[in-house]
């Protein structure tokens, strides 16, 4: 009997210890859309942590650094929409040929997107707009097989890697 009581006490302690330990942050959510007349690919990253930078990895291993990462802003509350919410950002870009550039951008999202109907989302946390510049061949490849591409999101304390989201 005393052995059974000890095992029960150890099981209770193990459950209590895991319940009190800090849990990992929820995975980020990403919405993606394309600029109408350009090779720009826009993403909205919603997470509990501030996004520092992002990069796309092509199926053949080429890394594409985000051209611009916006300043984090609070994610909309339940029932609110992203439509019409402007974004300001400062970013840099680096090319495979060694070129580097910086810039400041102001964008106005057109239409809704996100987790619910009508562009509504109920996610808490921060939202960051990310912009990638892709040539037409890369953009066609991304559109045809986004799951073969990888998206790396750098939050400073961790880097999350996930399959790139499909374009609508």
UniProtKB/TrEMBL annotation:
The keyword Signal applies. Residues 1-24 form the signal peptide. Keywords: Signal. This is DUF3261 domain-containing protein.
């Amino acid at each position: 009997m005393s052995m059974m009581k000890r095992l029960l006490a150890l099981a209770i302690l193990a459950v209590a210890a895991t319940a009190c330990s800090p849990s990992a942050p929820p995975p980020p959510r990403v919405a993606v859309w394309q600029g109408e007349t350009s090779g720009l690919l826009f993403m909205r990253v919603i997470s509990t942590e501030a996004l520092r930078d992002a990069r796309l990895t092509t199926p053949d291993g080429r890394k594409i650094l985000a051209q611009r990462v916006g300043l984090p802003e609070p994610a909309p509350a339940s029932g609110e929409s992203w439509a019409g919410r402007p974004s300001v950002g400062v970013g840099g870009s680096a090319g495979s040929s060694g070129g580097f550039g910086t810039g400041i951008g102001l964008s106005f999202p057109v239409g809704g997107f996100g987790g619910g109907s009508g562009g509504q989302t109920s996610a808490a946390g921060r939202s960051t707009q990310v912009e990638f510049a892709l040539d037409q061949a890369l953009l066609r490849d991304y559109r045809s097989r986004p799951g073969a591409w990888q998206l790396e999101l750098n939050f400073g304390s961790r880097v999350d890697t996930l399959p790139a989201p499909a374009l609508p």
